[in-house]
Amino acid sequence: MAEGLRERKKRETRERISDIATGLFLARGFDNVTVAEVARAADVSVNTVFNYFSTKEDLFADRYDLVVDLPQQVLRERGPGEGVVRAFRRDYLGAIETRDWRYGLNAGNDAFSRVINDSPALTARLRDVHLQREQGLARALAGELGADPGDLVPRVAAAQILAVTRILSERAQAMTLAGEPWERIGPLLTAQAHQAFDLLENGLGDL
């Protein structure tokens, strides 16, 4: 269905407010910018900002719903006969090659990382995003497995898979913030990704 004029204008207004807010947060820090300042810069009222964004954190994390759904998307789009761990391994290795924003590997993500690390509110929001992602993937896995409500397998699997992708991305971000070039980060991250997903596939019994 084609986007109507009203829907397009609402989308454009939301995107403009978010873009302006993100620019202010990157320049001055999340905690140093008020919603009122965002509203003035976007030439809208504070009420208008909150009509589009429930909280100040949403102004920075405007892709919240999309990010939460991404693990479930990987699950849905795996190939015929492809296991869950294999699907996430393939997806993460592909993300390294393309420097995909979905895992925080894109150029310029170090600036976003600094803003998050400097703000307790955004750090807390990021923890909530990780939890929502894990819970969503666990529900999707439970549905595919036909698991009983008390079955721990979907929850444990979701937690372990997303812990691996999170730890790898945190390692990449730490190296980026330390000034390492991507030419060094990429190959090292690829080797570490293989090592981490091997542990997932083969277990820790021999550790």
From TrEMBL:
Gene3D superfamilies: Homeodomain-like (1.10.10.60), Tetracycline Repressor, domain 2 (1.10.357.10). Pfam families: TetR_C_14, TetR_N. SUPFAM superfamilies: Homeodomain-like (SSF46689). Coiled coil: none annotated. This is TetR family transcriptional regulator. Residues 11-71 form the HTH tetR-type domain. GO terms for molecular function: DNA-binding transcription factor activity; transcription cis-regulatory region binding. The lineage of its organism: Bacteria, Bacillati, Actinomycetota, Actinomycetes, Streptosporangiales. Residues 34-53 bind DNA. It comes from Nonomuraea fuscirosea.
